[in-house]
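Quick check before the chapter quiz. The format below is the same one you will see on the exam, so make sure you can read both the input and the output lines.
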Amino acid sequence: MLFTILLTLKTILFMNITRIKYNKPIIFLISTLITLFFFTAIYLSKIKKKQSLAFSFYNTVSIIMFIDVMYHSYFNTLPSIKMLDQLGQVGTVGASVLTLLSFEKILFLLDIPLLIIYSKRKKANIRQKNNIYNKYIRWGIPTALALIIVLILGYLSSIELFGPVTNQELYTYHAKDIKKAITGEREIVEGRSVFNQNDLQELITRTTLKDGKHTGIGKGKNLIVIQIESLQTFPIDLSYEGQEVTPNLNKLIKDKGSLYFDNYYQMLGRGNTSDAEFVSNNSLYPSMEDPTYTQYEQNTFYGLPWILRDHGYSSWAFHGYEKEFWNRERAYPNQGFQRFISQEDYNLVETSGFGITDGEFFKQSIDYLKELDSIDENPFHAFLITLTSHNPYEIPENLRYLNIKEEHEETILGNYLQSIHYMDKALGDFIENLKKEGLYEDTVIAIYGDHFGIASIQDDVKELMTDFLGYPYDFDEMMRIPLIIHVPGEQINETISTLGSQLDFLPTILNIMGIKNEKGIMFGRDLLNLEEENYVAQQTYMQKGSFMKGNTMFVISRDGIFEHSTAIKMDSREPVDINSCREMYQKVIDEINKSDFILKRDLMKILK
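Here is the expected output.
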């Protein structure tokens, strides 16, 4: 009885933390009935070690709940069993995980040590009593509970609520997830999902870039792409207590030859940083089943490294952490990178978090860039991924240069600003070293953030950020990242506010480099020569089907029911009639399904 009561209380807590909004009574009822089914099946059985089995079940469910709420606090969704192969990375990002802990989450595990003592005593009592129930009770009660559960689920299916409820209810969600993992079944989401010849032709037409604004201004130059860890847009040009948070990025944005995209968004799947680079380099949507670099490691691709190599470039990737992380070592060859400079290639004289500091990373990368430049007379392509500004942003004191107000000391905001300010300093030194080594003038430099640094999902953090910024800190502000493209020697300086995402990086940079994509497929658009209104179709943090278009942000409800969704104007936060969003909702699902089809069928292998 005690385990049933406690697990029921944890179910209420679980529903509260995961923010279940619709169908709460039926979800609670199903969870409670399933809990009762398992405990009655155990306690009414002839099994001798009933208490041990019941305690094991209780512990297992408690641990699953704890993992679920921790994952949900960061990703705004429940985890998949397919993510089990990523558990090895938890130790690496352990400090980041700890920032998600709270007392209410610890409650899922806090009682277990005390219950060990209780369970041992109860087990002794059960052995003494040795209750034996007749077969009608032993089988009748669990069977009746199971029948009620089946009838409820059947009724929900008949009124088209089976999916919305089981997408949120603990037991049925994981049962469905395990079934899909075993059978390879994919959940059907509203929208057309058949990929046909017309779809292929439309994508090929979209991929055919037209000459226009700034086409070819970087033609024949080297290309250095820098993906900066956790860089959002809000620190750009931000003055904190009279201090510039990103003085070097600000200067670069204002310099001649710079294009600054200030309405640009992340585009992630299950692979976070690795998906940011995958999407940016390939202009394909990421996987939502596994990190794309893991699931499609052996696929054929034709993204930025391959395209540049076809035009004489040598293409290397640089990252100051272990080469196995996010499966980069195995995925990079098929991405087109000829060499991967990783942690083992750097002298770790200064570290922070789980890798070499950005200062040392940039400093030591200069020699490798000189080696890359010396390979032949052709230009080179270097892809650098920074590390220091990684959650939880707890950099050493000697790298903290900002004076932080007492109220922000040791908060995620204060630590984040410190780490971004340090990264900016390291980046500024890197650009100066490029100039000293004669690599700057003939090199296009593209800089963007991989993903958000501070989530808007946790209420306390959202409140902190809203108060600091002076406007609502929602998904749109959270996922906005900067893109800066600098072409030395060009007499241009523009801020482009066209809506875009990492999906649009490849076509945009190809336009600047004056190179066509003649063998591949791109879902993104050239943001410099876009004739129609663009959109951003998110499927992480916001559920699949959510989008941003124009001034509208549409967020599909977690239960998947369109009518339960929300839409607002991003500038005023005023509500928008969701019925006006249905056509776009279906279109973005179609887009994601097309990309998913291409990845699953390895279609690039045929096209290339």
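If your answer matched, good. The two ends are 63 Å apart (CA to CA).
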